[in-house]
Amino acid sequence: MIVKTKKILINSELECASGEALENFELMTDFYGELNKKKDNAVLVCHAFSGSHHAAGKRDGNIGWWDEFIGPDKTIDTNRFYVVSVNNLGSCFGSSGPLSKDKNGERFNNNFPQLEVIDWVESQKMLADKLGIKKWHLVIGGSLGGMQSLQWAVSYPKMVKKVGILAAAAKTSSQNIALNEVEREVIRKDSDFHDGKYLEFNKSPVKGLKAARMLGHITYLSAKNMDQRFGRKLQNTDSKIAEDIDFEIENYLQYKGGKFAESFDANSYILLTKVMDKFDIAHGYDDSLESALENIRAEVLVVSFTSDWMFPTSNGKEICLASIKANKKCSYIELEGEHGHDSFLYPNEDYQNAIKNFIESR
Amino acid sequence: MIVKTKKILINSELECASGEALENFELMTDFYGELNKKKDNAVLVCHAFSGSHHAAGKRDGNIGWWDEFIGPDKTIDTNRFYVVSVNNLGSCFGSSGPLSKDKNGERFNNNFPQLEVIDWVESQKMLADKLGIKKWHLVIGGSLGGMQSLQWAVSYPKMVKKVGILAAAAKTSSQNIALNEVEREVIRKDSDFHDGKYLEFNKSPVKGLKAARMLGHITYLSAKNMDQRFGRKLQNTDSKIAEDIDFEIENYLQYKGGKFAESFDANSYILLTKVMDKFDIAHGYDDSLESALENIRAEVLVVSFTSDWMFPTSNGKEICLASIKANKKCSYIELEGEHGHDSFLYPNEDYQNAIKNFIESR
To answer: Is A85 known to be catalytic?
Structure first.
């Protein structure tokens, strides 16, 4: 598989939904496979909250987040398709975001414009123009990436042939927002946060980031999966990684949270949770989901998982029912998933067949 | 209604399940109604995690947590029954706990013995002996109070005529423990926590406590209830109580968390979440719930709420099925509840009738 990673400068202004603007911006992007002559085999893969452009292949010891789905003869067959995977604006893996510098050469820190999902679509539209891609064969993603895919199909209907919306929703719920607010709260109140200017003090609010991720991680798993995997098993005394731990699940979360806090930027964390909170595809359509989806020209695939409590199956059904009311071609698939919300990341025969058939159907 | 509040000294040693001991201890206790001559009309009401002895009536502007259920002609009719409500050991509303002094006159702080639910039952058994109550007509409680009620029926079968277990479980799940660990983590990592010795510095880790309660509060509500009550409504700019708030639900949690942090003790918070984590009634019975429940002589009422995701209905069913297998008299009632886990606190005709009929039946 041909793999390329490029940081691409888009030298045009991006006017954000908030009214703020970026004079120009960079998008860190992975490319898997080859664009054909007709340029009609491009697939845009959209990552979730804390993901990155690195969707496939091994790099610096890390495996891409959808490696089992992208590659030669895999679900998205790179012998046939040209996969584009963009690190979202505002994130911290190479695209413009809080870690970047503004036009005066100052680091943005907490002053990066607050983005919305539609801004990501705009930025990727500008990238598609630069790449000469007039129509995506497929735009697909899970969670926040699924919301992004849906926004693509609504905002640029002529540019999306098929859209795959996995473990996502047409809008975030009050509970989603509430949990995100707790995560932001623990970051902001970390004494090393310094009102978002922590890098000027050579600090990072790692304690807050760690706790935020511990909570986030619980929302990505299911209660059943946690009971099966950890249950009430006690942690070995030798391998406790923090004081006051009794159970394995505590140790696991401490470990996962700590690892994450070493590599993620706190201002990005806050910004990206706000992007999620603000997502409501029906906003601007008199709160009518059906009206919002009327724009769509793409074939729609919606997948929900019964073990997902972050975006439960009612969210997926809602999108599909509104699509059908709006006279769109939509398939809805409900799978149990063993991993709660995270199920969209894991290989499973039914799941992969559904996506593969959807992509490869005429 | 006759109401009395007393701090009762139990001047005997309490040997805790952990092996640690308290030389003596105090229990802050409310009494509603009158004990009859036969002393057979006593009802023990057990509070949940952050509750107190103050279950009924208005005091200092606060209404008791089960005021709609306890009183003359109410669900638990104080014309007939004598209600005893004890602040649990380790809590911070007057009973011995981290705020108390040890035998050397030093404040316990984080050195109060780590308790288990069975220790609460032991302490209340000693109280019952002191009060001359040989058998409770009923022991009842919700959430952690329901676990305590179950433990009473198992530990002192001859002392419990009826037991009511509301919105509770026979053991905490991996997800329960995980969420509690996040709550503890944000308290411990507050820079004002000082390894639990914060009072020696005239501090309290209010930032951590606030965030912990914000998370706890989300677990007490249901996603549906939050959507109905707050949905995606934006907060008025005038009444934002913290920076960076967009939605009403964020403001609500900030407010609730902040209020709680003013009145609760952080060491108690940590200790009490650990009590919850450690609860598994089948522990010591080869992990067989049926074996554990074989001791019971009481009639059992179990109530679960379909909107409760902290202790879902499967938890209630599990207790009732095991009771029936163990040849006990058990009724199980499943109600929707509008308030998620907190539904056990709210008046509802079916719910109150079920409890009233259970109490008053021969």
So the answer is: no
Integer angstrom CA distances of residue A303 from A151, A166, A320:
16, 5, 10
Exposed, middle or buried, A297 (CB in 10 Å: 0-12/13-18/19+)?
Answer: middle
Largest Cα–Cα distance of chain B, in whole Å? Answer: 61
* Residue A155 sits in the same domain as residue A251: no
The domain boundary residue, chosen from B224, B248, B274: B274
pTM, entire model: 0.96
In CATH, what number is assigned to the domain containing residue A302?
A: 3.40.50.1820
Angle of helix A206-220 relative to helix A174-188, nearest 10 degrees, comes to: 160
Residue B243 confidence (pLDDT) above 80: no
User: Closest chain A residue to B271 measured between Cα atoms?
Assistant: A244
For chain A, the domain total comes to 2
8 A C-beta contact, residue B196 and residue A252 = no
Residues A269 and A284 occupy one common structural domain: no
Decide if B175 and A231 are in contact by the 8 Å CB cutoff: no
What's the CATH number where B186 sits?
Answer: 1.10.1740.110
CB of A238 less than 8 A from some CB of B = no
From CA A231, how far away is CA B156, in angstroms rounded? 28
Find the catalytic residue in A323, A341, A342, A343: A341
Structural domain containing residue B354: 3-171+280-360
Same domain, B166 and B311: yes
Among this protein's residues, is A143 annotated catalytic? yes
pLDDT in tens, A135-159: 999 999 999 999 999 999 999 999 9
CA distance A250 to chain B (A): 6
- Chain A, 57 to 76: residues with Cβ < 8 Å from chain B are none
Q: Please indicate, yes or no, whether residues A32 and A74 belong to a single structural domain of this protein.
A: yes
Q: Does B309 touch chain A (CB under 8 A)?
A: yes
Are B129 and B191 in the same domain? Answer: no
Neighboring chain B residues of A281 at a CB cutoff of 8 Å? none
pLDDT surpassing 90 at residue A291: yes
The Cα of B212 is separated from the nearest Cα of chain A by a number of Å equal to 8
Chain A, 134 to 193: residues with Cβ < 8 Å from chain B are 171-175, 177-179, 181-182, 184-186, 188-191
Q: Are residues A26 and A161 in the same domain?
A: yes
Six-digit token string for B116: 């288990």
Token readout for B22 is 């308290």
Which of the listed residues A243, A274, A305 is the one where a domain comes to its end? A274
* Cα A287 to Cα A259, A280, A290, A325, B18, distances in angstroms: 40, 8, 9, 15, 56
Residues A148 and A50 in one domain: yes
**pLDDT bracket for residue B242 (50, 70, 90):** confident
Are B247 and A309 inside 8 Å of each other by CB? no
Q: Smallest CA–CA separation between B219 and chain A, in Å?
A: 10
Structural contact between residues A66 and A114, judged by C-beta atoms closer than 8 angstroms:
no
Tell me which of A172, A175, A253 to substitute to probe the interface with B (most B C-beta atoms closer than 10 Å).
A175
User: Is there a single domain that holds both residue A23 and residue A53?
Assistant: yes
